[in-house]
Design a protein that fits this description.
alpha/beta; Rossmann fold; 2 domains; 33% helix; globular
Length: 386
């Protein structure tokens, strides 16, 4: 019978927890034993009493929990140490870890875990297939980020969002431009609409036009013969000429925008540059940009990760962990995602890694001493060649 351990988060500022009491109860009913490291869950708003009522066992010392568990859960499996992103938890050889690894940026960690013969399941790599929707933690966090990005933009803006009829006359609604209509972008549109703004949205994929318009936004079309979407539903990397064409179109609309939310990212690659310094200078003083791609290079040339900067009177937010600021609900979301994955992995009480299963093979990062994920292996080869 497998024992699951919920470890306390070590990433600076990370307030989420990988498993909430609701999920603990489901796993215990499934016959699994759940250990909670003392302090895990507190910052997200889940007290020890709730975990104990759900059937979890609290362990005060990390060494004790490491020696007693088979499967380890964390939200962020890496943390900043000595100026480098590292994995510091003392996992035993041959153990299983599930969480966010950011594998494309932390190749050195991936290779080290493979050498320790770890079974690592990266929640970023959940495939976009119908069967895996319940486990899609990346989409869950993207939805939270899109929601919070609009709130951050509205809070920073020196205008009202909605149309207002006042004794002093009519106040026009703010104008919001959303760049990228994936999960984060669509949630940003929906949130801005609820706040009463006028919204335009841009995406290279014509297939999202109907979704954008159904949420009440105007869709900015890009005429192209290129296929801008992979079979898995992700945006594809395009040529420099293509991005220059995008910049020209965005530039025509950004001058009128009060708040710009950028969400454009490419799976496993650096985010495309879509807003140049000159484009920022064309914006109205007091306007706001919220760059949700800041962790991967940013869509705006002036974005600084984890900082808010001002250029030519324009406020540019580069926060990399907006989902973490909603730690109660995003913990619930992540917990449900990881619990659904556990039910696929644990059969009759024992861990079963079926490499023929698309869901398992796509999410599995390291196994049997090797980096086994095809996307990550490709990046390792690129780094070696460079």
């Amino acid at each position: 019978m497998e024992t699951i351990a919920v470890l306390k988060e070590t990433f600076k500022g990370e307030n989420r927890v990988s498993l909430v009491p609701e999920s603990v109860q489901r796993l215990v009913k499934h016959g699994l034993k759940v250990l909670i490291e003392d302090g895990a869950g507190t910052n997200a708003g889940f007290p020890p009493s709730a975990y104990e009522a759900a059937g979890a066992i609290f362990i005060s010392q990390q060494d004790d929990i490491v020696n007693k568990a088979d499967i380890f859960l964390k939200v962020n499996c890496v943390c900043l140490h000595d100026g480098m992103m590292q994995i510091l938890d003392p996992y035993p050889i041959n153990s299983t870890i599930i969480g966010f690894f950011n594998p494309f940026k932390n190749i050195h960690n991936v290779k080290a875990l493979a050498e320790k013969k770890m079974n690592c399941f990266s929640m970023e790599l959940i495939p976009r297939i119908s069967r895996a929707q319940r486990m899609d933690a990346l989409s869950a966090m993207s939805s939270a980020a899109g929601y919070k990005a609009v709130l951050l933009g509205a809070n920073s803006l020196n205008k009202f969002f909605p149309l207002m009829m006042t004794a002093a006359g009519t106040i026009s609604p703010s104008k919001v431009l959303v760049i990228g209509a994936g999960v984060a972008g669509l949630q940003a549109i929906a949130t801005a609409k609820r706040l009463g703004a006028q919204i335009k949205a841009f995406d290279t994929r014509p297939v999202v036009k109907e979704q954008v318009e159904s949420l009440g936004a105007d869709f900015i079309e890009l005429e192209t013969s290129h296929d801008a979407e992979t079979s898995g539903g992700y945006a594809t990397e395009m040529s420099e000429g293509f991005y220059k064409h995008e910049q020209d179109i965005i530039g025509e609309h950004i001058v009128d925008a009060d708040v710009v939310v950028t969400t454009a990212q490419i799976f496993g690659k650096k985010a495309p540059l879509l807003i140049t310094k000159n484009m920022v200078e064309s914006m109205r003083t007091g306007s706001v940009i919220v760059d949700l791609a800041s962790e991967n290079g940013g869509n705006c040339e002036l974005t600084t990760p984890n900082e808010t900067v001002k250029s030519n009177g324009v406020i540019i937010h580069g926060m990399t962990d907006l989902p973490g600021s909603l730690s109660y609900h995003t913990s619930e979301m992540f917990s449900r995602n990881v619990t659904a994955l556990l039910f696929e992995l644990v059969k009759n009480g024992d861990l079963s890694i079926d490499l023929k299963d698309e869901l398992i093979s796509s999410t599995l990062l390291t196994h049997d001493g090797q980096v086994v994920n095809s996307h990550v292996k490709k990046n390792i080869r690129i780094i070696i060649i460079k």
